[in-house]
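Milestone M4 deliverable, item 7.
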Amino acid sequence: MSANSPGATDPGRIRNFCIIAHIDHGKSTLADRMLQLTEVVDARQMRDQYLDRMDIERERGITIKSQAVRMPWTVREGDLKGEPAVLNMIDTPGHVDFTYEVSRSLAACEGAVLLVDAAQGIEAQTLANLYLALENDLHVIPVLNKIDLPAAQPDKYAEELAHLIGGNPEDCLRVSGKTGVGVPHLLDEIVRQFTPPKGEAEAPARAMIFDSVYDVYRGVVTYVRVIDGRIEARDRIKMMSTGAVHELLELGVISPEMQKAQALGVGEVGYLITGVKDVRQSRVGDTVTINSRPAKEALGGYKDPKPMVYSGLYPIDGSDYPDLRDALDKLKLNDAALSYEPETSAALGFGFRCGFLGLLHLEIIRERLEREFGLDLISTAPNVVYRVIMEDANEVVVTNPSEYPTGKVAEVYEPVVRATVLTPNDYVGAVMELCQGRRGTLLGMDYLSADRVELRYTLPLAEIIFDFFDQLKSRTKGYASLDYEPSGEQKADLVKVDILLHGEAVDAFSAIVHKDKAYNYGVTIAAKLRSLIPRQQFEVPIQAAIGNRVIARETIRAIRKDVLAKCYGGDITRKRKLLEKQKEGKKRMKMVGRVEVPQEAFIAALSTSDSGGDGKAKK
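Output delivered:
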């Protein structure tokens, strides 16, 4: 049987590996060259970033979904020359918001290729991904990419990498994903250095679901990595977490398009189709086994990711609510890090409170919902989860400012993160100033080399999710990189700022902010709303308040009809009488009038209040 022919392959010939790197260090380009060299993609079909299937990925030049692909390779050099192998490669995202994708990919592999841009060197996410790989006990091959660039300094960064991993600079392979230099040697090294998958071929079948996708015609397509045993076409399979049994309609491998196979054996990565349309039947991290000979114990699964940022998603047209619910169900299948629950807002109607891993994650999910499912959405300003302890010792968990309790508050706890910033030496002062301005605490700093510094800070998550990254980039001319991970919570002096229109609080504009920044927030939102809400027949006050205390105010002037136009000449008392009559009418209207806030005002105020922080291609 040839190395890539469908059917169970000898596990000794299989190598499962993934490519990990910081964003924009050339993972997808290197994957392109591998696809070309192994000839699994026809030259006519080849295009740049072949594995980035979504339009958003291609437009932004970032990988959002990890993609698995099977490639045949015959070793060209060294002691294994002429040896056929099957390489299962997973191309992973590089952005901090998609770390969960990377961690799932690593659990399905035996080795990782750590890619570093030879012109930029090690960045924050490089370190984070390296530690993830080492936690999973993976063998790491360090590789310097983009050696063809005029600005490349491979010798300098090879030393940095060797110092980090604990090896010799000569062990760092040098490749160019663009020109293909060094890629055949890298493939040979992957076969030589990575161990074949271990598993019991005779044991009952166990396969781990590491991803799934919804196909309109075929239902749920489940991607699995077989750990033990063998799954054959037409077997009846069983999901171990739900106990659901399904008839297997098709199985196969991804190379890089779907190819049917007769069976999947130990160590193989492939797909299963059961024709099931219910998206809740296939959970990432679940174990698949054969119904006729089920396994006794399920595999370990994955840790559930904790959402870092919450935001409400509401359809602009209320009748789209059921469509939004179905769309979120289908998207959850493809993005296991998404969590959501229904909620209602007095101003925006029915919607969902969604949990995301970061601001870019929020933006990508919203864009995918709008593009893939044709929905028009409003997202509320993102916020984090607070723990509020009242004076009567009751505890309230607040994911939305409208849930903030009204009684006497004793303590408020906010989530904090441990942030790692890598920056050139010249910008250390600017980075420290920024972090201290965001209530950060310095944990330590290390010089990775003579001109690169690693700073470690504890920062409140709420201070990072808005425009922290944009500020960091502008202060360091784009050279600094940021990575963060949750590290508990801390007590903080926080207050809820309400925005009142005509004396009524509008829940969509409320926010929980630090006491020192409350005034600034109130003034900004009030000024913004004054310019966005059209003038009414009566005067409308816009107030920002903490509890009962108003901290900022703007006024929308009334539209005034010129009642004196037809009153020319005559006594002043006549004019005054007309004005008094108009005043009475306005007072009466004010009693019955309700301020209509146009949809555009909501969208503009909420989208601009989360200024920046979108992290478009964080490099």
